[in-house]
Every structure is written in C-alpha cells, then in structure tokens.
Amino acid sequence: MKKLKHEAELVRQALTVGAAYFEKRGAGKFEATDSASNKVTAVYRLLVQDGLIQPLAKDQENEPNMKHKLALWIERQLPDNHPLKNG
C-alpha cells in the first residue's frame, strides 16, 4: 500500500464528509467524544455496506488500511484542481 501525498489531510476530509453521509443516511450521529478510530471504522463499514468502496480482505481490516481506503475514496470525490489531489 503506497501512502498518498496528503493522506492525513484526505482522511480528515473523508471523516468530515463521511460523518455527514453517516448522519444523512440515518446510521447515527457522531458525538464530540467519539474517537477518531471509532469514526474511521464506522464510516468505512457504512461505505462498504452501501457499495461505495470495496471492502478490505478480512485479514487486512485494520485502522491504517481503513484510513487509506477512506483517503482513496475522498480523493476520487475531489475536483481535479483540488490542492489535495495527487494529480
């Protein structure tokens, strides 16, 4: 797995967009006290369930890989001229 140039920023962006999707989808609402790890897992699993991203292999389902998947997902959603795009 090759790390993306702006992966940390992409993950933050993915969690922001993912949290909004999570709430609109009716899956729940994140609280300020929820850990980033819990948010990553919840958003990842919802996106997999809805068929928006491919699931990781069961033995690869860990937080760094989930973050990477979320970063790839949000990068594809960004416009071509966005500063976080690897280009």
From TrEMBL:
Pfam families: DUF5062
Organism: Pontibacterium sinense
Source taxon at top rank: Bacteria
Protein name: DUF5062 family protein
Annotated InterPro entries: DUF5062 (IPR032036), DUF5062_sf (IPR038316)
Source organism phylogeny: Bacteria, Pseudomonadati, Pseudomonadota, Gammaproteobacteria, Oceanospirillales
